[in-house]
Amino acid sequence: MTGLPGGSDDTAVLEEQARDPRARRGSASVTFLSAFAVFALLGILWSLASPVFSVPDENAHAVKAIAQVRGQVIGYTLPGVKHIVVDLPEGDEYHSHMMCFATRPGVPAGCNGIELGDEGGQDWFNTWVGAYNPIYYYLVGWPSLIFDGNAAVYSMRIASSLLGAAFLAWAFLTAVTARGARWMPLGVAFAAAPMSMYLIGGVNPNGVEFASAVAVWAGVLTLLQTFEDGAARPGLSRTALWSGVTLASIMLVNARALGPLWLVIIVALCFLVSGWVPVKRLFTTGRTYWWLAAIAAGGLFSLGWTLSGGSLSNQAEASDAPLVNGTFLQGFAHTIRTTPDYVQQAIGYFGWFDTPLPVWTYWLVIAPFALLVLLAFVAIRRRSALSLITVVIAAVLVPALVQGYSVHQTGIIWQGRYGLFLYLGITVVAGWLLSRDAPAVQVLAPRAAWIATSLIASYGVLAFALVLVRYVIAKAPLAEMVTAPQWQPPLGWPALVVGYGLASLALIALVGIATERIARRDAIDRPSRAVAPHVEAPVRG
After folding, report:
1. If you average pLDDT over every residue of the chain, what do you get?
2. Collapsing DSSP states into helix, strand and coil, what is residue 14?
3. CA atoms within 13 A of residue 132's CA, in its CB half-sphere
4. Which of 104, 240, 257, 384 shows the smallest number of beta carbons within 10 Å?
5. What percent of the chain clears pLDDT 90, i.e. is strictly above it?
6. Cα–Cα nearest to 199, from 163, 228, 245
7. Which residues have a Cβ under 8 Å from the Cβ of 247 and sit 6 or more positions away?
8. What is the number of alpha carbons within 13 Å of residue 204 lying toward its C-beta?
């Protein structure tokens, strides 16, 4: 982890950064690149370990991307064919038998050996995402112009991993550079849990949706900190913070049809957590409106595309989903009752609901989550605790309200992965409130970061290995992983498992060392602010 040293000589580096803006910018660049490398590597390893089209809805998203970058932005309809049809180029013909393992946990991924582009496939596909917002598909679909067949899917997955990693790295950067935010790196580290990395490693906008949402959570909270009285200024300028928040917001509102609503919910909750004074000052600062105008433009494009393209207007049939034509109360009540299942899905339920993990493994990520959130409730002020409770309640009620509103038209279609942007918001907000309002527990932050991130990383390695077992041999004896594997990912499963283990160690070091640096930086900043509080340059932008 170059640029995130942990020895005693680091104090001199931090003192130099406090005096020299160029040193701060250099440190920020190294932090961003280090975080980007870790998140990208985790996502890319998942992109290689997952069989083609094993990620939920990936076949529909991938063929849309392939067709769209060749000029077919929406596609067309055919009599008697459900959904929008797109044409596929030579070398990318689709075979329905490619997914012989989907929804069948006892069937390995090598069940028939057919790949995308093999002879005998169809040169068209009726995709249920044909009318979706095109931005994500342009950003990840371009490698299919270079590669075809399965290689095109793997290359698009890597592009998606890099896109998601960029937003997560920026979220981590804001966490590290925010003054006094000792618990924030751990709050963001939950975004590296295996289900999250699995999603950014697939061709599905759900991955970049939650990644950009995490960047909005962290960015808005840190931005509002620059408007507080007496608050230590973040290491990033206000202009840099606004730039990141704007890009993340535009990506979020255009990732999927409900993106504009997600952005409003996240920003409203961040305003509640921060309090009235910084929010009022934000809106009484003239430059704020230039940034808001850019975000609004992105939101208007998203709304215009959704309303004109019809991606929210199709009436489902009774066979498509449960409770089609149901009432609001039926949809709301069903979603509330099913919330524990949605949480399990968000923690780790892979494939087409065919690859759950053993229940005991979930405790490796539940334990650090409980540590962070319960410690926040115990240590922070009452008003802050109420705001955190509101975020937790929103994570339960928002899916129920949305599903209740749409159940008549769509039936029950909510899945746990759709709520990742809310669940991860809980950890980011808990980390931010602990850093701001709980001075008595600041000394615990470095040790908690090492332990909690080690548990998250251990869960990631375990999930990665178990998912590979499911696809390589399914339910055959474990020894056949070595003696008779029925499917092999690119590079082979042993190399991928070793690589994921090393990347997980890098994640632990990234979060642990960053938290220790924040603690040492706070120790330097406190006496300097007490002696000469005017020495820090004002935040510009």
Report:
1. 91
2. helix
3. 29
4. 104
5. 82
6. 163
7. none
8. 25
CB 5 within 8 A of CB 515: no
Burial class (CB in 10 A: 0-12, 13-18, 19+), 352: middle
The Cα–Cα gap between 93 and 229 comes to 61
pLDDT value for 2: 40
Q: Which residues of 36-71 are buried (b: 16+ CB within 10 A; e: fewer)?
A: bbbbbbbbbbbbbbbbbbbbbbbbbbbbbbbbbbbe
Contact by Cβ (8 Å): 265, 394: yes
Write the CB contacts of 257 (distance below 8 Å, at least 6 apart in sequence).
132, 133, 302, 306, 311, 312
Instruction: With a cut of 80, say whether residue 394 has pLDDT above it.
Output: yes
The answer to whether residues 286 and 228 touch, using CB atoms and an 8 Å cutoff, is no
Residue 466 has pLDDT above 80, yes or no: yes
Pairing of strands 84-87, 355-356: unpaired
Sequence-ordered list of residues with C-beta below 8 angstroms from that of 36, at least 6 positions apart, any chain: 165, 166, 168, 169
* Element containing residue 127 per DSSP (H, E): strand 124-127
Length of the chain: 541
Quote the pLDDT of residue 27. 85
* H or E stretch covering 406: helix 382-410
Distance CA 507, CA 326 (A): 45
Q: Does residue 537 register a pLDDT over 50?
A: no
